[in-house]
Amino acid sequence: SKLTNLGHLEMTWRSRVRFHPLLVRILHKSRLRYYGKPEKKMDMPYQAYFEVADGSGMMSMVLWNSLCPEWYHSMKVGTVLLLDKYTIKTSYPFKTQPTPGDSQMKRFATIEISLNVRDPPTEISIIPEEMVKPEWGLPEVKYRFITRSELDDLPNNHSCDVIGLVTFVGRAERARKREHSEDFWLYRWAHAIDGTSDQPFILELFATSQPDVFERIHPMTYLVCTQMRVIQDLTENSSRTVYLTTSNESQIFITGWHKGQPYTKDAKVQNFIQWTKSQSEADQIKKTVIGGYYPFPRPPDSFLKY
To answer: Which is a Pfam family this sequence falls into (predicted)?
Structure first.
């Protein structure tokens, strides 16, 4: 059938009601958002954002309501989609923006693709990777992996991806989303090493829409975290604490989930795998810890400083 592309959509969307099908690759995926309220009678008040791209650039795509439980888990980073009977809307201005792995990629920020169950019912097809043709010109998924030795030089709020061997994982803890709110964020702390520094990555991992992975982070697993944000915590006695926290678009993978993921081709991931082959498992296990209370960032050592 006749296809369109994202660049053409941005130029012509105001003058059209019906759009030609789109062929895109998913580059980023947000956590699933529940927006239900007691006074609103909605069956499936869910929403998820994706960043999708073709040869012309990148645009946001929103999956709405009952399409979320049907499609969310099938739409992975790297998945190629054929979309028909979608709608185009002006972008929601306050949504979070992931940092693209390819800084040269053009971003279409004024509009977004909306996938709905009706008015009109969107037709979604997943194209298996072995059927994707090079002449379609779809971009590859690119990452921004860093090593632990590079972390200390990165600015606050910098976006990056990391891979490491888990040496510590704390218990799940809760924090209120807002004061006096009944809603909580669920998170846990983890340490991971990659052989490039004596210090581990300190990771604040909020529960994403991957409960099966979040609950199974254990010492000695290979942990990949994408779209992490650097937090540079400078205290008044100039001792610096650097850690990484998840963002709205973070994805977490552990041993058993890596097969077929686009990041397995990345050079820094390959280097990490080579380093793990040189390590003694028995020696590493002796250094691992699980559970317990982990006060972080560390409180001052006296009440006066506190």
So the answer is: RADX
